[in-house]
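Record 1 of the preview.
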Amino acid sequence: MIVRQEGHRWEIHFESQELARWESFSRVFGPRVNLRKQGWWQTAPNSELWTIFVAEFAVRGGTALFDGVWQDAPKREEFVRRTSLAGSTDELRAGLKSVTRFWQRQADAIEQCRRNTCVVRNCRFVLLGGVERIHGDIERRNEIRARCPALGLKGTSDFLVSVGAVEDIAAIDTRVIACLKRHFGLTLTPGRVQSSLPLYLAVERGLHEAAEYCHISLARLDRAVFQASGTSVLDFLLDPERRYGDF
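->
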């Protein structure tokens, strides 16, 4: 991996043998990742879009608690009910308490979003209003970040991929950075990458280069790394039909 800094601009590239490794990985795991079709959000129930939005806050600090709730149907239904857009602040806090250690902080952030008329208006989730008229995935992300700063760069990226609004951006989290550190020699920490827009975009451009080489979307490669990082060899080999995708 080649990492260069010129002033405030960073460049990250993979060497030819590293791109070949990405291709081998994507051939095996890429097809097992489920992504919602582009444009899914335009016909999705408003309540479902809101739940996906709330989940971006619920998984901050780790996904283990959230995954445990989401994979249990009764608990999932309870979480969705408690965190609904029409629910009270107390219900929201109770719902988040079951999925994150930082439930107070995230409840405050979501309440801030509920008061933001670019996010919620007349008890409807309106954050994606008019996004179909914005051309370009980066441009869409920039617009949503401007409307809802609380979502953050990684959260905005993940949300837009999850609802099928973009496919050429990446949600760069600790698992992705850990993969780059362990397998490609990256020396940057997750905190440094996520707190620096130039660094985040440099990593994203590097992954985009790899995705193009593999002939898959950047979102698919990013999700493949995320899911593979949390999958044991036993699970992968003994459950070959398993697909990994959005909740």
